[in-house]
Amino acid sequence: MSSNLSKNILATIAYYDVMDYPMTAFEIWKYLITQTAEQKIADEEKKEFSLAEVIKELENGKITRFVEKYRGFYFLKGRKDLVPQRLQRNKISEKKFKAIRKIVYALKFIPFVRMVAVAGRVAMKNAESKSDVDLCIIFKHGRIFTGRFLATALIQIFGKRRYGEKIADRVCLNHFLSDKCEVSIKDLYSSHVYSFLVPVYNAEAFKEFQEKNGWIKNYRSNFEAGINNRKEIKDSRFSKLTRVFLEKILFPGWIERKMEEWQVKRIQNNPKTQNPGGIIIHSETELAFWPDFEKQGPRIFESFYEKILKLK
Length: 312
Hints:
With 312 residues, the chain is α+β, with helices and mostly antiparallel strands. Helices cover 46% and strands 14% of the residues.
């Protein structure tokens, strides 16, 4: 068995241990980490591993020195308590998925919306009761600022937008893309975020997003573009006609220009934009608001690297 596979499995389990997330054999295989910022793998060593190879290594390989199994989940030794916690968080996440469907059903009527996907803790079924629901929304290229305004207004009307101390079960709108599907951050943490996305509206557009972001495979060689439509909300003739009608009304370019001018000014004047380590992006292809990003990707990687050093 490849020594790289053993290292990759251990890296994957350790990375998700930072998020208190034990994994099934299938999940380890699907999200297998094959490259990190500290580990550049030669091209000839990069390869996809089969599920059977991963299971064999988990059950009989060198990995068993560091990993335990309980109720179908694998985790670092001494972390058995994560399993009942994950099972409970699965139930919490499912409830949040059901609650968000009403909002996504309404979002499909919004002009220029091309895809809605759940991200973050809820997408990976690791949500706590106090967790919000992250949404990633794709709009028609050239209409991202208009689309963002309309989507935000709708969720505000529903009384479900996250702000201040109102967090639990609220919608966090921190990432928008145009249908060019160009993302700015391409690292290990982002490969995790995007590979866990769950499309809730227009899974076909989601598949196109995955295909355009093949860089994810640089970090996770088993990553494949696919559609998980178990929770998908389908378009109806009425929603299509409504959206097309409203898009014709809002099509003039000056509307988008005014929306961009107004929103960029508000973004630049927001004190959170100046947070050290934060990432704020505003362009015609992407709007991203992560003022506390250093507490996410960088902090997770630091904890992950510390775990790897201890295991060595």
